[in-house]
């Protein structure tokens, strides 16, 4: 499809870009840092069960998204699919909620990157580094979509190489080839291992694992600017299962084998605690003295990658909604390089203003609430993918279309999207299960804690209901869903 047919955005993302964007979406601080906390909480066996369950859910979600994105590659992704196959109000709420999430978390990423770099430059002001990183991320997104894709490709290459080296070093350490001592399965039988804390510990790890996989849906948005989406999207989606198996399940297995779940160092989990990253601990156990510096650099690239992708995804989502009439029209403008600059600038400004709130004492409170409001957005987007695909396939069959004509067909329908939907809802409902296990309704702090954990839900519902009542939208009957992919390219008739 020519770039003019795509509202002048440029389909310059190659297959290798899309594959690495998908990989980058699933490897980040959730693996490098939070995995240690997961093992400490539920034991090595409990962590493996939780990450395997979430990994299966993510795999089904990505196959669902892959089927729709291959058939209809648009930058609006699941927001567009929800508008076409469920209800325009549902798509409106998903789009604005997703944009809001990434605009807010952009501030988190530049703040975290500044703290990480103080490992080397402890006396430099953090705000200055945050400003530098924001300018770099903005520049990569403003230059061209190819610049974004290329930067993500190399960010992801660094993460992939790190994990592969870690796995090799870890296996050698387990067998005593490095570190000088055969470890074997001894740490899988320490104390209550392999399972610690029972069902609720695994549930808590389940939630943690869910956050670790946030961002895998970026491949659906990037499909709108893929040069060959019919080839690139299926290839990227098919790799999801093996990435999860290799990078998460095997990595957690190696960590659990080498470091006992009782180790207090595993409870680190903050981005600034690179010295107690489980990856750092394993490298040090193998006798690699420069482990902390290397992992600090890798974690820095992970955070910058998250900010880079977040700005890209939110910009494209905002632009797509503007094309669909769900956002101000001026945001739909695209420059000569195929970049929606108005949407990019607005998103960057919101991210920068959110960051500025962290510099004052009162602003920190506002920032905490904003961050909490965005906390459930990724899971809500996943719910939207599952529901949209379920109705996409049902409408496709109801209208007598040939399933064999689909260039990529998700396996295990309807089991896949329904299982993913149930697990997503479980994650959302169980966001703060501890508060419900020990209710204290007379305590204002208990209610505040509940509000912070679940505020994302009423915000999403508010977006949905406002659109529904102002536009009088209704759930689209299955036989009225439009499958003419050429008549609806990013919200504009071809």
Automatic annotation (TrEMBL):
Location(s) in or outside the cell: Membrane
Broad class of where this protein is predominantly found: membrane
Keyword Transmembrane helix: yes
Keyword Membrane recorded: yes
Membrane topology: Multi-pass membrane protein
Domain of life: Bacteria
Molecular-function GO term, any one: amino acid transmembrane transporter activity
Entry keywords, A to Z: Amino-acid transport, Membrane, Transmembrane, Transmembrane helix, Transport
Transmembrane segments: 20-39, 45-62, 99-121, 127-145, 157-178, 198-219, 240-259, 288-313, 339-360, 366-392, 412-430, 450-467
Gene Ontology, cellular component aspect: membrane
Domain Amino acid permease/ SLC12A span(s) in chain numbering: 17-474
Matches recorded under PANTHER family: AMINO ACID PERMEASE, GENERAL AMINO-ACID PERMEASE GAP1
This protein's name: Amino acid permease
Upper lineage: Bacteria, Bacillati, Bacillota, Bacilli, Bacillales
């Amino acid at each position: 499809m020519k770039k003019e047919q795509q509202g002048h955005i440029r389909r310059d993302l190659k297959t290798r870009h899309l594959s690495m964007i998908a990989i980058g979406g699933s490897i980040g601080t959730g693996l490098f840092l939070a995995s240690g906390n997961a093992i400490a909480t539920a034991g090595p066996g409990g962590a493996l069960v939780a990450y395997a369950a979430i990994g299966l859910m993510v795999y089904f979600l990505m196959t669902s998204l892959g089927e729709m994105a291959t058939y209809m590659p648009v930058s609006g992704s699941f927001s567009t699919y929800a508008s076409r196959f469920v209800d325009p109000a549902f798509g409106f709420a998903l789009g604005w909620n997703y944009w809001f999430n990434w605009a807010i978390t952009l501030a988190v990423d530049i703040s975290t990157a500044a703290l990480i770099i103080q490992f080397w430059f402890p006396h430099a002001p953090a705000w200055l580094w945050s400003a530098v990183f924001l300018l770099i991320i903005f520049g990569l997104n403003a230059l061209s979509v190819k610049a974004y894709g290329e930067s993500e490709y190399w960010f992801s290459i660094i993460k992939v190489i790190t994990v592969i080296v870690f796995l090799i070093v870890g296996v050698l350490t387990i067998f005593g080839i490095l570190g000088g001592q055969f470890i074997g399965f001894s740490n899988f039988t320490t104390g209550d291992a392999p399972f610690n804390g029972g069902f609720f510990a695994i549930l808590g790890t389940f939630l943690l694992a869910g956050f670790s996989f946030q961002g895998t849906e970026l491949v659906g948005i990037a499909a709108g600017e893929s040069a060959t989406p019919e080839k690139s999207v299926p290839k990227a989606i098919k790799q999801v299962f093996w990435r999860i198996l290799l990078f998460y399940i095997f990595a957690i297995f190696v960590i659990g084998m080498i470091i006992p779940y009782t180790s207090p160092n595993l409870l680190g989990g903050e981005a600034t605690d690179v010295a107690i990253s489980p990856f750092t601990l394993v490298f040090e156990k193998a006798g690699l003295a420069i482990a902390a510096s290397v992992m600090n650099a890798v974690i820095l690239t992970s955070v910058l990658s998250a900010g880079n992708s977040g700005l890209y995804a939110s910009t494209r989502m905002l632009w797509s909604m503007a094309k669909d009439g769900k956002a101000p029209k001026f945001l739909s403008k695209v420059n000569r390089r195929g970049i929606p600059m108005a949407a990019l600038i607005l998103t960057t400004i919101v991210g920068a203003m959110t960051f500025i709130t962290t510099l004052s004492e009162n602003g920190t409170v506002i920032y905490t609430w904003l961050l909490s409001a965005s906390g459930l957005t990724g899971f809500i987007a996943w719910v939207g993918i599952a529901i949209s695909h379920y109705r996409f396939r049902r409408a496709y069959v109801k209208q007598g279309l040939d399933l064999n004509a689909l260039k990529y067909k998700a396996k295990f329908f309807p089991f896949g999207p329904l299982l993913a939907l149930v697990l997503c809802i479980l994650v959302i409902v169980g966001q703060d299960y501890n508060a419900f296990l020990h209710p204290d309704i007379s305590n204002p702090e208990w209610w505040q804690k509940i509000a912070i954990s679940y505020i994302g839900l009423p915000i999403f519902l508010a977006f949905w209901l406002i659109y529904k009542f102002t536009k009088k939208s209704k759930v689209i009957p299955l036989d009225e869903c439009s499958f003419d992919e050429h008549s609806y390219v990013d919200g504009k008739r071809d």
